[in-house]
Amino acid sequence: MKPIPTRTVERLFRYGQLLHAKKEAGAEAVFSRELAQAVDVSPEQVRRDLMNFHLKGTPQQGYPVEQLLRKLYEHLETQAATKIALLGVGNLGKAILSYFLRRRPNLSIVAAFDTDPEKAGRVYAGSQVYHISQLEKIAARENITVGVITVPAASAQQSADLLVKAGIRAILNFAPTQLQLPREIYLENIDITLSIEKAAYFSRKSGTDRRHGK
Amino acid sequence: MKPIPTRTVERLFRYGQLLHAKKEAGAEAVFSRELAQAVDVSPEQVRRDLMNFHLKGTPQQGYPVEQLLRKLYEHLETQAATKIALLGVGNLGKAILSYFLRRRPNLSIVAAFDTDPEKAGRVYAGSQVYHISQLEKIAARENITVGVITVPAASAQQSADLLVKAGIRAILNFAPTQLQLPREIYLENIDITLSIEKAAYFSRKSGTDRRHGK
Description:
By secondary structure, chain A is α/β, with parallel strands linked by helices. Helix content of chain A is 43%, strand content 18%.
């Protein structure tokens, strides 16, 4: 399959989100208009995207959920597992460890790291916790390529630098701060406090169409 | 102050994010180029945004952090507290309760709700937990206007409908599913699993500029 453009990939992930929910709910078919609504594009765009996978839906029966999910993830995931490290085993870090455990078959948080020596040696939700000084060694041994940062803002840049030095190529950052990273490192930020602040702000604006965010 | 456009408001929140980090780090001044870099706009745009607040920085000394933070939040927050409800007191819900406790002076999660009768009556991280059947009553009594959804995907739409019925006007949704809401309700989605999947996907793409996400 030829390379798929980035924006299309982002839509594919969101189709996957709906498909997982459909599968969980026991549905066997999904229609292009449902996928279109979920992702806020036209049904025609959905059908063009799904032609990449040589799957045709029918107007009456839609697309088969299981088959589509499988083909989608054949492209979105590799056959090999992706190993993830989490830095910062506080409340949020522990919640992410629990939340993500066994959620996706080829993705797992194989190691967690903290500066607190009391936490090293423990296991939280299936992840062994190590002292941060072990990051490079463990990342190399386990072939870890993704990092999740759940440390306080003041420690986040240092955590990111350590991850990059350890060979990590993509970072999901929960700390409420902007990170400076080499251009080739993928970075996504989730700022929970900022999202709550925005919700509070827009809850006060009256009017007919205040739909914002994502 | 005349109304500030939505896109400007979103930048203002992100300036606030940097300013909070600066304040935490003990810095007294911030420069427009730092704010520009944090938000990925030009320093000129930053200065135009901050003219809304009748604050001028100087090239040598920058803007005063405390004063700017105060003026920014005079606009971004009301003087009155915003009350928030959280639905779904599982691992993620509990982590959000802990994480957000006392983080912003005028924002607090005053009540949490769950379908599990065992959880009702307990207190987690400063929030009283109630049975979901109490939502409308408590929301009215406490004047709750913002809802956070941390229930499983299959229960999310129902939770959102209950929040809207209870008078909530803005929702932050962590469940991995698209919600259907009236147009005037503010909605923001945070899908942690999707973000991890995207990081894993882009960690495998080689090349010089794979910077994506936010």
